[in-house]
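SEQUENCE-TO-STRUCTURE ENTRY
===========================

Backbone structure tokens: a row of integers, each naming the local backbone shape at its residue.

Task: work out the structure tokens from the sequence, keeping to the layout shown below.
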Amino acid sequence: MIRLRGPGARTRRPRPAPWLAVATAIVATLGPTVAARALHPSVESAIALADDADFAGALRGFDLAERGDGLALADLVALYAHRAIVHFARGDRSAMEHDLANLLALEPNATLPPAAPPPVLDVAAALRRRGVSRPTLAARAELRAGTLHVRTTLEGDVRGLVRGIRISARSDETAPWTTATSEVMRLPVPAGRPAFYVVEAIGPGGAVVDSLGTRHRPRAVQPLALSPSQTGSRPRPTERRRRAESGGGGTFPWWTVAVGAGAATAIGVVVAAVAASSSSDGQRTALGGPILELD
């Protein structure tokens, strides 16, 4: 409210609300608590503006960093933590809740500083109790016919934090990496050699929000074992087959051979006898079933 008190009177500005002064002090002390290492310059600049209570400038800086590239996961976590406090200082509760939810989706164990105002702590605690879905990668990789096949799936990204999937692969530990921004990748691999791959979910600012392996410790895929028909080699014989082929020491049922030979001999004797009887009568006899003669 502006009041005039004579010709030399000056306007008097209303005092800021107490919560605004508290929020400004919290923003100024938030930096060293949330980030224990040097952050990306774009995030650092936005934090500096917030420290000077230039909240509008800080929001512009945070937005530019979020839409840019080159951020690490720690940079993105710090961005959401700082920006949530700035939103609180401006009285924008909806935007504050949005950034706190993003923060917990990326880092479920993230903590705000002890000096954070109760409304911010209460919202963060409520989000934890309710549960915030976290983006999670899964992949299936195999070597078939001299080609590495990698297929990825993304689950739990209900907040839309993932901007894309990046797959990197190589045929051995010394070969250069081949990278594709896609959910599927195929890479030729020399026969009998293993392959290595890394899958990354890229979030705001180019930050890797989830990954399967790293380039220092990639996931390995071993070639499938080939069948004897594919390798051209004969299977190794079993012990019983080896002994049978060598003719000794086995458990082959030789008595069946003897019985079979005896039976064959008996049949031969009967056939010979019948043939001799037929010859003595001067008749030709056909071996077969009974013959019916009609008078």
Notes: The chain has a mean pLDDT of 77. Strands lie at 136-144, 147-155, 164-170, 178-180, 184-188, 195-202, 208-212, 219-221.
